[in-house]
Amino acid sequence: MVRMTSRLVFQVCLGTIIFSIGIFEASSKIDAGLVRTLIALGNQDVLVNFVGGNSRVINQIQSQSFRSREVKVRALTRELQTLTRNTQSPVKDLLNHQDIQYQSFWSSNQMVIRNAHLSLLRVVANFPQVSRIQKLPVVHLKPIKNKIVPNADAIQWGVTKIQADQVWSTFNTTGEGVVVANIDTGVRGTHEALAANFRSDHGWFDPYNGTAFPNDQNGHGTHTMGTIAGTKGIGVAPGSKWIACRGCDSSSCGGEQLLACGQWMLNPTNPDGNGTDPSKIPDVISNSWGSSVGGDTWYNATIDAWKAAGILSTFALGNQGPSCRTGGSPGDQPGVFSVGSTDKNDRLSYFSSRGPSASNSQLMKPEAGTIALMLSAYRNQQGDPTARLAFDKMVTTIEKSAVTQGLTLGFFSYRCALGFNSGFPNNEFGFETDMLIKIKCVD
Asked: Residues in domain Peptidase S8/S53 (predicted)?
């Protein structure tokens, strides 16, 4: 009797230990900050990441040859959807059984669970397919202070400062044949400098309200698209076509909507979300948003999928300067072009975020209109309207054509490691942009 009791006690203790280990492993997948928030404030929207993300498919697609970009994007989309379906299926079954609201994203192999409670997340974390559960990011935008009035007879100083107007005349291109996109607060489709070059075919998506025509309740997205593709003297590549996705609702950008826009860029639909057409993807995407802190990888899988599809992307590095190490994510991550700010006198703006980044990526300073113009000019030079400048080649071109003459740090500037005095690139100016020289350096 004593022997059986001892054995029973041992089995109970062993079961308790195994159960405790399981709980510990599950809890370790849930960010500590999220746990504290759930305990203090209750249910939260969360982002679930899965083991391996989408990297297996990305590597597989990148190792293959395809007869066209469209064929490659179709294969990429199909394989990403299959991976996500197979990876997320057990978690979806659990959530469907409990009638929990969620949104799955095949582009990044991630999932948003809405209004989740801690006990549910502990069960979700126990699935071996789950690698991390974090609070769903929300990004806040700073308002646009200066408004530009279009004037067909006056080219804005920012356009001439980077010699974009000289590229127009020297290479006979203003961005023709290139499709640019932004993920922002939307774009006012009736704007006099933007209405003419909106590509209406699979050209607009609003994951917030499902609106049928481009609109902007803030002005931020209209401003950024105007800088990229605006006519009447305000844009760098006015000959390009533009499309847009509303990833930001007024002054903030929801993580779920940013992921939805990222996925839409890989497989654009009509405004109602139907009629996918991967042949309508853009050449370059502008993202004038980001967090105030660096080192966050939550959007990297989306960026990797864009790269696999041949889409170049730019991200704002942030307005947290003048201190060093102030770059925000995703702008501080590898694989993107990060955008800083200088004024009309080539002084580094005091608010412009500086490197070095938490991920050790180089801070570069083109913007989406610049890349669109470089791509259009390159196609003209090659005599091939479908020619593409790969990310690595674009980086090489920017690196070897940095313009340094006349640049100054301005007021209130810290000198960062590998900073202005160390040459170019550096953690203050990055690779300063002079369009005419950069396009001449493309080989």
From this structure: 175-366
